[in-house]
Amino acid sequence: MPDMNSFIDKGQLQISAVSAEGNVPIDDATxxxxxxxxxxxxxxxxxxxxxxxxxxxxxxxxPVEYSLSPGDxxxxxxxxxxxxxxxxxxxxISGIQILSGQLxxxxxxxxxxxxxxxxxxxxxxxxxxxxxxxxxxxAESEIKDIAETGEIxxxxxxxxxxxxxxxxxxxxxxxxxxxVPYRDYIKNVASSEIYATWxxxxxIANVLAIMSFTLNRVxxxxxxxxxxxxxxxxxxxYDHFFVYGRNIYESxxxxxxxxxxNYLSRPNVRQxxxxxxxxxxxxxxxxxxxxxxxxxxxxQGYTPIExxxxxxxxxxxxxxxxxxxxIPASWPGTDLTVGSTGSKVRQMQEQLxxxxxxxxxxxxxxxxxxxxxxxxxxxxxFQRVFNLPVTGVVDYxxxxxxxxxxxxxxxxxELN
Length: 416
Known about the structure:
Layout: E1 9-19, E2 30-35, E3 44-47, E4 57-61, E5 76-84, E6 91-99, E7 103-110, E8 123-124, E9 158-159, E10 162-166, E11 177-181, H1 182-193, H2 200-220, E12 232-233, E13 248-249, H3 250-259, E14 262-265, E15 277-278, E16 289-290, H4 291-299, H5 304-312, E17 317-320, E18 323-324, H6 343-358, H7 373-385, H8 396-410
Parallel strand pairs: 1-7, 6-8, 9-18, 10-12, 15-16
Antiparallel strand pairs: 1-4, 2-3, 2-5, 5-6, 7-13, 10-11, 14-17
Helix pairs in contact: 1-2, 1-3, 2-3, 2-4, 2-5, 6-8
């Protein structure tokens, strides 16, 4: 933990709490925040609203410059969270990471209490990969030698609904598996492996590399082909650094929501490219992307594809998945706004109206297929609750967020 006297900047944090059963928002949960190492020193106490959200608060953080170049000063501060709510098991998280100028989002899934006294081990968030040295990636071929057809390899690139993450090396049978929605997985990895303070083009380039690597594992069914029951691991030696329970950052979340169906391709290669990378400072990796190097290129005005091609070659391009799993209806192709009409408007209204039954802060909507003023107000309320830009327009990220929440609240039970 860095010296508290060095916390001259501010970052922000918002907490949301939902039930692990049915994704129901938890109203009136109590959240206590304390510095890591001082759990009894409660510096903030918050309460969730009817949407399960806390207010957004400022927390001390080290200077932003610490995250813009490698050095000897930890660039983020760390805090404990204690979340309690009647009828739910207490949640303790140690090591929430706050970066200067960034909004951190901590999404808490609470388990209904079955027994009165349940021993609970706090979740401890591991250090960021750019701060602590983790095992370097074991080099692999970026294109897997696989059969074109068969049961093991998918016939087309599909964005999965869920990633099954093995929390350790592949051979560690004692490590748990976590079932994580695809977008949440990408946001978690990106928040664990790059800094949200970096240029947007750098964040996009790194998110593309993370998604392409992940979709290669999905497409080739890499681990299932080896007899394992998971999609990917949290081991940096094999895959990506995923940290169960960590906070993500709004700037990274918005990038992922905008481009989550994309991946990286080479000509005449069907599978997503296994885009490997390293930090580029403590570990060098010729022909792979350097994370710190990508930050410097972003500072120089490079676009995301220019950053990608700088490391992986000029024949790399951005592709889009043929199918997105787990959604009621695909993106209509254009924004929906006041004056829009048709079946896609009706589908969106039906989903919003069902969501409003679970989230009382959202007004009900009449599914008439006409995007009028009342629909715009409902969309704005939805965007406000789920940390999207409040525009009243159903763009690509808003459409798929509505779909995600609709699916979550209409299921009887979800995988945890």
